[in-house]
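haha ok so turns out i had the wrong file open the whole time. this is the CORRECT one, sorry everyone. sequence first:
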Amino acid sequence: MVYITAFRRLGILIRISALSLGTVVALAQTSFAQSISTPPHTTPPIIIIGFVGGFIKHDNLVHSEVQLAARLRQAYPIGVDVETFESYHRGKARKRILSLLDANHDGVLTLDEKQNSRIIIYGHSWGGSEAIALARELEKDDIPVLLTIQVDSIAKIHQNDALIPANVARAANFYQPDGLLHGQSKIRAADPARTSIIGNFRFDYKASPYKCAQYPWYDRIFGKSHTQIECDPGVWKQAESLIRSDLPSTGGNGAVAR
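then structure:
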């Protein structure tokens, strides 16, 4: 009788242990499944979009817009995404921005993903106008923009490159007034309470023209001052300084300091 009781107790203990083990396994499986279905939150990169002018290719290193992007990529290899686009690929640029902001890759931007965005847009000529047109589209998406920079911006048909949308925090405009092709001379804020106009900076190349030897002959002949402001290193040094003022400091090896 004593042996029978002991065996019964042992059976109960075995069943309890098996039940406990099953519970542990089930909980582990549930936790693992949740970790797969809910990826960890990641912070989207700072996004810098540059538009080249005219019909220039986005990777043509002769042009200052592309050179600027290359310098920024080298200085900020981590945490900053720098990309250039043709002036007729605004839709492609917007699609890329939305993809980068979608931190959990579920195809839907949450309010947090939108409001945590850090976007800078710059461009020359038609690219300057496209920069503002892209910012305006992002406004419709409820996505803020840190900074826009226009260099001798020339508006396309049905575009308004003079009025900066209210989702832009800061905006700067560099222009020259001469020649057949000359830029927008004055930008203004749609909502001055939300957008700070850094300035409309005028450049004159009559007294000290830049040769722009690497640029195509037709740009140098027919574009003249419009091309000179694009190849003026002083203009792009100021533009780069404005962009870097919105970026984290970098360590000695070029990586973003955390």
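The longest helix spans residues 2-37.
again sry for the mixup
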